[in-house]
Specification:
This protein has 183 residues and is mainly α. It has a single domain, classed as Hypothetical protein af1432, CATH 1.10.3210. It has 10 helices and no strands.
Length: 183
């Protein structure tokens, strides 16, 4: 499993290229690896862990779905590759400004929350870990935006309830704690 995850990490790192985290000089791959490690505390499902590493690749890089599919099929059993890709696709935002320029952020995020409420429990579990990792970083580096982000995360977590229950509770707790610290 660790060898596969290492190959997935290398693929994601190459895909993200020179991208860095918004609030630090860290290479972007640091975030998806933290998301994967949060998930790993609650599951050993290879498809979930691999999708956690890849969760932003289709959304934030030039890598296309078929390219990711081909890569995953080279390193995983077909069923695992298919599940991994499914979770990544489910986590890839659809209601983005590029596709819906006439909609404001509130409308796009509302539609995305509705969509995410219908995705698999596994994808929701990864999203919980993503919210946990992003919440602290955003709150400590951008308090003005953090209030909006944390409010959106709260709405999202109330709509996404099918994933890992312990991780869901931790995500709600983390968001609430960051909100309290902003007061």
């Amino acid at each position: 499993m660790d060898q596969v995850l290492s190959q997935v990490k290398d693929f994601a790192d190459r895909a993200h290229g020179k991208q860095t985290r918004r609030y630090s000089a860290d290479p972007y791959i640091v975030h998806p690896m933290r998301v994967m490690e949060i998930c790993r505390q609650h599951t050993n499902d290879l498809a979930i862990l691999a999708a956690a590493i890849l969760h932003d690749v289709l959304e934030d890089t030039d890598v296309r779905k078929d390219e990711m599919d081909n890569f995953l099929r080279e390193i995983m059993e077909p069923g695992q590759a298919q599940r991994t890709l499914k979770f990544v696709v489910e986590l890839t935002d659809i209601y983005v400004k590029k596709n819906y320029p006439e909609w404001n952020r509130r409308k796009r995020k509302s539609k995305e929350a509705d969509r995410l409420s219908t995705v698999s429990p596994e994808a929701q579990t990864i999203k919980y870990a993503d919210i946990i990792d992003n919440s602290g970083e955003i709150a400590s580096h951008d308090p003005d935006f953090a209030q909006l982000y944390l409010d959106e995360a709260t709405v999202l977590l109330h709509k996404m309830t099918k994933g890992n229950k312990k991780l869901h509770a931790l995500a709600l707790e983390t968001v609430q704690a960051e909100k309290e610290m902003l007061k």
